[in-house]
Amino acid sequence: MGNQRDPVYGIVERQRLNAILKELFRKSIHICSSFIPLFLKLAYWPVIVLLVLAVIVYSISEVLRSKNIELPLISKVTEIAARKRDENRFVLGPVTLVCGILLAALLLPLDCARAGIFALAFGDGLASLMGKLFGKITIPGAHGKTAAGSLTCFFAVFISTFCCCGNCFIALVIALCAMFIEILPLADFDNLIIPPAIGWIYFLLVAQTQPLIG
Fold it and tell me: Using H for helix, E for strand and C for coil, what is the string for 38-90?
């Protein structure tokens, strides 16, 4: 019986390893988005234009991919990063990621946008990865999201926000809000919501506590 089950166990372990590697690749893209506030500070409008162009080129690539026409680099990256639920359809994650960053950058002061983008890059980015690696306890109604992932989101956002403002109260509120949004079963739309929503909450908190942190 043990010998008969070993091959099956090996297949399951390989599938789990492949899923973790895929998630690591996907979330490395999230984490790399943390550099965008720096680029925006150096050259705001050129970076905005490049982000818009990136969405357009990627969208064209996905439409072509649906017709079995592949753009060599973009289609390969999409294939590597795509999850099982994304198979044979438009992979929406990169579009919502960039659009969320654009919304934050266009609607908010850059310091507030930075807090929102960091929440997406580090909070959402690390939550899914840690959930895959260590998540044992799932959260009811959260479509498979785990306590480990949500706690990782909280601490990652707390640290990144504290680095932005140096205020524990603001960092705590922002981390709680980011964790709540991350828990919601929003699929790829959390990418779209987190940067402007967290950036806006950060803006309100800083406005109220400016004498404390200024």
Answer: HHHHHCHHHHHHHHHHHHHHHHHHHHHHHCCCCCHHHHHHHHHHCCHHHCCCC
Which of 174, 177, 196, 184 is closest to 101 using CA atoms? 196
| Beta-carbon contacts of residue 27 (< 8 Å; ≥ 6 apart) | 125, 126, 128, 129
Query: Taking a C-beta distance cutoff of 8 angstroms, is the pair 213, 167 a contact?
Result: yes
Q: What is the pTM of this model?
A: 0.85
pLDDT in tens, 136-194: 888 887 777 889 999 999 999 999 999 999 999 999 999 999 999 999 888 779 999 99
d(CA 18, CA 32) in angstroms, rounded, equals 21
Angle value at C-alpha 100, between 96 and 103, nearest 5 degrees: 135
